[in-house]
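Lab notebook, bench 4. Continuing the backlog of folding jobs that were queued last week. Each job is logged with the same field layout so the records can be merged later without manual cleanup. Today's entry covers HTH-type transcriptional activator CmpR, a 404-residue chain. Filled in by technician R.K.

JOB TYPE: sequence-to-structure
TARGET: HTH-type transcriptional activator CmpR
LENGTH: 404
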Amino acid sequence: MQGIFPNIRHMRVFLETARSGSVSIAAARCHLSQPAATQAIKQLETTFGTALLIRRRKQAALTTCGALFAQRAANAMRHINEGASAARRETGTKARASFETSVTAAQLRSLIAIANAGSFTVAAKALDLSQPTVHRTARSLEAIAGTPLFIARSSGVRLTPAAEVFVRGAKLAQSEIQQSYEEISRELGRESGSFVLGSLPLARTTIVPKAIHAMVSTFDGFQIRVVEGRYTELIRSLREGDIDCLIGALRDPAPADDIAQEPLFEDALAIVAHPTHPLAKKCNLRLEDTLCYPWIAPPKDTPAGQYLFETLRIEDQPETPVRAVSSSMAVLRGVLAQGPYISIVSRHQIKIDEKLGVICKLDVPLHGDLRAIGLTYRNDWKPTQTQSLFIDYLRQFSSVSTQN
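JOB STATUS: finished
OUTPUT FIELD FOLLOWS
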């Protein structure tokens, strides 16, 4: 069910039934006949493979699975409504005030696919539909919204600002639906689940691999996908629901009001080189002693890069020693092995490399270099029980890593 929306009108009928305890009342509120409302709920139950309601003579009650779905479906509808409101603010009075109540699941699926692909054609392939079908669905969404959502360009299509904010609500809604499916599967004894973890370089060496191994060893049906990238890209994916959680260096202040940060431990920076470097075995070095050697520096927008360029102000030298810039440990490891290069990096990140004897810390004292490492997630994100267990493993191995 990954990436699939149930029928949105069916979800509205179900939620109204959950609130009122009556299919008849729900049908009236949704402007449907009672048989149509009953059929809508049955189709949802078929989708999830279990009963969501217990039908009684005077009142309908939620099953355990129904209660799980009701909470997630309500969150999904809230995200869609908030996305629509944000789109209206983006366009002033152009967007129709009721388009969130008219949007269909097919339109949201197409919107998300187009946003991800940047092309009607590629989106159609991802959805296993024809390009004309996706194009018609996208244009029908524009008609309902009452404002342009897609702008053609030579390389494909891009979203308008209104579509950008609306697609965020759609993706967050989709994430809630996926979580409801996983929670219901767990309740029915069909253990399954998924976790999309955004990982910054520091955590990739030991914390993430150990947490993955512990989780895979515990649950057969759980799948973890690790996404790497620049911090700004990962934060955007996190806020849009494409990523569940991010692990790595925290930012001060937090990047957005809807983001929460959980510190796990503090990590120090170190100036490093290959063990064969002329400075490798010297003591009481100063930063100035390193400046006659070529540097491979981390990007300025990373915590290590900020420290190097803003605190140590390495570029204020008459001639900057920085000859290469990269955040890749593989590149750093390879460059240091080629010659007398120097860099600055997290001590935790090079722990294994130090043990293997391929990178060594130079005896250059640093001050104010401690940085908080932890988890970053959305304020309103509620992990499933299985996802919470994976989070606990990340916390556990973060704690262990500071003790070793």
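OBSERVATION: The domain at 269-369 is CATH 3.40.190.10 (D-Maltodextrin-Binding Protein; domain 2).
SIGNED: R.K.
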